[in-house]
Design brief:
Butyryl-CoA Dehydrogenase, subunit A, domain 3, 3 domains, Butyryl-CoA Dehydrogenase, subunit A, domain 2, 4-stranded antiparallel β-sheet, alpha+beta, 11 strands, about 400 residues, single chain, 14 helices, binds flavin-adenine dinucleotide
């Protein structure tokens, strides 16, 4: 019989403890400052690069952990430190995974090193899919990529929005429409190399939370890139488009909305980030409840407070189990027949929102001030139910997967 365990192995424990040390010693002490500055924390990213946390090697090691738990364990610890700074550290990974998943070996070897730079000259990357009129509804994307055969170049035009590291990245990965008739099946991903003319940063957003992470519009005006910047190459794209056209003609498989169908495998990682933020707020609230006295006794002596903490911890552990299940399934090649990836992201992100709100309440007036970290954690937690598919979209994906019905 196969051995079943939920215990991390020695290597995983070692990585977890090492990341926890970095989160506690470097990230958490810097969190308030960078939240107030609302700027990318370059010195912290550089520190992470120096110790090897900000690097493709580290990310790949966790990504290829055979149990699937490398990424969720890493995300939980880094986001326990601080969500905004941690997103600045792992944001490049989102673009890098796009290249790893769709790029040729040559593209991977050329572009991923330029996304990270090195410890003396740190670089960032951005993944640009969302647009002003195409958020949850990815199929309504308008950014166009047109092939100029004579020059073997692609020409990109459009406006991307909400791009993490958008405009300040060395390398941008841009999703664009190559065949508008095919909905999201007519999309392709492109590398925009450093300093390409025509790519500029639009508005930088002033945000409610994760303020140490840079979020901005990316404007593409006649951006010309070599044919070699199409991820996966032209031959593969032509074959894929021909298959999609054939299916559309024969009335076969419906052309699905990408927001409903993709990202299922990356969602547990966002769930793990949410678990990290929730755990951080819970720990602060637990300590506070044990030390703050009112009516002559610690406030945790009241069931009204103690039961809240019991519920908070139970939900956090349940969220982690859903995240670990989905991460294990993705790595083991199991099909998400019940949208388990979406389930994990939905439950963990809603948990982070509710647990951080309870933490603010348990700290009373102090919870409402910037003197204590739960105020920031509560603002940060709000992102998890929005990006990588909102909670409503997760519910749609789950309900459609379970029922097979086109629920709207
Ligand atoms: C800080 C931040 C960082 C981000 N980083 C990136 C990034 O790096 N790259 C990138 O490409 N994108 C990024 N995003 C974009 C993010 O993925 C989108 O914001 C998200 O997909 C939601 O799209 P939207 O904001 O347009 O909301 P909308 O799609 O307009 O949704 C608005 C509301 O309507 C609801 N809704 C929409 N459709 C339905 C439906 N069919 N049924 C029920 N309810 C529905 C939504 O759930 C939501 O509550 C980021 C966003 C933020 C805020």
């Amino acid at each position: 019989m196969a051995e079943f365990t939920l215990e991390l192995n020695d290597d995983q424990k070692q990585v977890r403890d090492w990341l926890h040390g970095f989160a506690a010693d470097v990230i958490r002490p810097a969190a308030s400052e960078w939240d107030e500055r609302e700027e990318t924390p370059w010195p912290v990213i550089q520190e992470a690069a120096k110790v090897g946390i900000y690097s493709l090697d580290f990310y790949a090691q966790q990504y290829f952990d055979p149990t699937g738990l490398g990424i969720p364990v890493a995300m939980e610890e880094l986001f326990w430190g601080d969500a905004g700074i941690a997103l600045s550290i792992v944001g490049t990974g989102l673009a890098a995974v796009g290249v790893l998943a769709n790029g040729t070996e040559e593209q991977i070897g050329t572009w991923i090193p330029q996304m990270y730079g090195d410890a003396d000259d740190v670089k960032l990357a951005a993944f640009c899919s969302s647009e002003p009129d195409a958020g949850s509804d990815v199929a309504s994307m308008r950014t166009r990529a047109v092939y100029d055969e004579a020059k073997d170049e692609w020409v990109l035009n459009g406006t991307k929005t909400w791009a993490t590291n958008g405009g300040i990245a060395n390398v941008h990965v841009v999703v664009a429409v190559v065949d508008p008739e095919l909905g999201s099946k007519g999309h392709a991903s492109f590398i925009v190399p450093p300093a390409t003319p025509g790519l500029s940063q639009g508005q930088k957003f002033k945000k409610h939370g994760i303020r140490a992470s840079h979020t901005a519009e990316v404007v593409l005006e006649d951006v010309r890139i070599p044919g070699s910047c199409l991820l996966g190459g032209k031959e593969k794209l032509d074959e894929r488009l021909a298959r999609a056209r054939e299916r559309a003609r024969s009335g076969g498989e419906r052309v699905k909305n990408a927001a409903m169908a993709t990202f299922e495998a990356s969602r547990p990682a966002v769930g793990a980030m949410a678990v990290g933020t929730a755990r951080a707020a819970y720990e602060v609230a637990l300590d506070y409840a044990k030390t703050r006295s009112q009516f002559g006794r610690p406030i945790i002596d009241n069931q009204g407070i103690a039961f809240q903490l019991a519920d908070m911890r139970t939900r956090i552990d349940a969220a982690r189990l859903l995240v670990w299940r989905a991460s294990w399934m993705a790595t083991a090649g199991k099909q998400f027949t019940s949208a388990e990836g979406s389930m994990s992201k939905l439950f963990a992100s809603e948990t982070a929102k509710s647990v951080t709100a309870q933490a603010v309440q348990i700290l009373g007036g102090n919870g409402f001030t910037r003197e204590y970290p739960v105020e920031r954690m509560h603002r940060d937690a709000a992102i998890y139910t929005i990006f990588e598919g909102t909670s409503e979209i997760q519910r749609l994906v789950i309900a459609r997967t379970l029922s097979g019905m086109p629920i709207r």
